[in-house]
Amino acid sequence: MYGDKPDFSTMTGKGYTLNIEKGHLQYIDAEAPTLSGINMTIPIGEWTCLLGRSGCGKSTLLRHLAGLLNDKANWDGQIVLESMGNRKVVSIGDQIAYMGQQDLLMPWLSALDNVLLSTRFAGFGSVSTASIGKREQREKALYLLDQVGLHDKQSLLPQKMSGGMRQRVAIARTLMQDKPIVLMDEPFSALDAVNRHKLQNLACELLKDKTVLLITHDPQEAIRLASKLYIMHNTPTEAQSLPLPITAVPRKLDAECAALQQSIIERLEKDYE
């Protein structure tokens, strides 16, 4: 029905989900698994957020999905695309953009050249990105820098940028890859509260219709951004889904959100006992 490598860009808002089913991961040199019995439903074209204590396996899951652990860990489980009862095991490895905790900008490259970096490597970017010429790539990169508010900073080197500016360049670089699935591992954690709030809003706007899986340690951030929210807990790690307010993201933080935030903190505290 879907093919092994489906076109996710056509599925937003149509009830499609990506399901991680019976996920089990163990590092090759480890005596016990890091993840066991992981089951998640990830809505296509929406944000799914993962919360959990440090070391519970959140980043491990994202790194596996991004194909960064192929030689380091054994994985059992499957990724299933589902809609209205129709199911198909699919491959998503080449449809993913990954944005880590650090911006990983090349210090000798300008903002513009950092955004263009992914186009220099074979296999990166969508077919449309890979097939366009250098002038078109430059125009696209400039457009993305404009979208993140840095059009006039295109020549700036990373060491001359604030933390917020560096993260905006990293967002533009991620968008340059034009992938339908975006994995984000605490990309806003190093920012102050105001810049974090601004970049959350910006990311929601620019990643609209993308399928985003975001790791965060901040319950408030998860509540603002998530259409689906999971707490990862226990050893080996399992995933528990939590209900969310039925409001559009990014949410305004009202009394309902505050009460949910408090309940999440209380759940997380139990994992530290």
TrEMBL record:
GO molecular function, a single term: ATP hydrolysis activity
SUPFAM superfamilies: P-loop containing nucleoside triphosphate hydrolases (SSF52540)
A Pfam family hit: ABC_tran
Top-level taxon of the source organism: Bacteria
Keywords, sorted A to Z: ATP-binding, Nucleotide-binding, Transport
Residue span(s) of domain ABC transporter: 20-259
InterPro entries per record: AAA+_ATPase (IPR003593), ABC_transporter-like_ATP-bd (IPR003439), ABC_transporter-like_CS (IPR017871), ABC_transporter_ATP-bind (IPR050166), P-loop_NTPase (IPR027417)
Family: Belongs to the ABC transporter superfamily.
Protein name per the record: ABC transporter ATP-binding protein
Originating species: Vibrio penaeicida
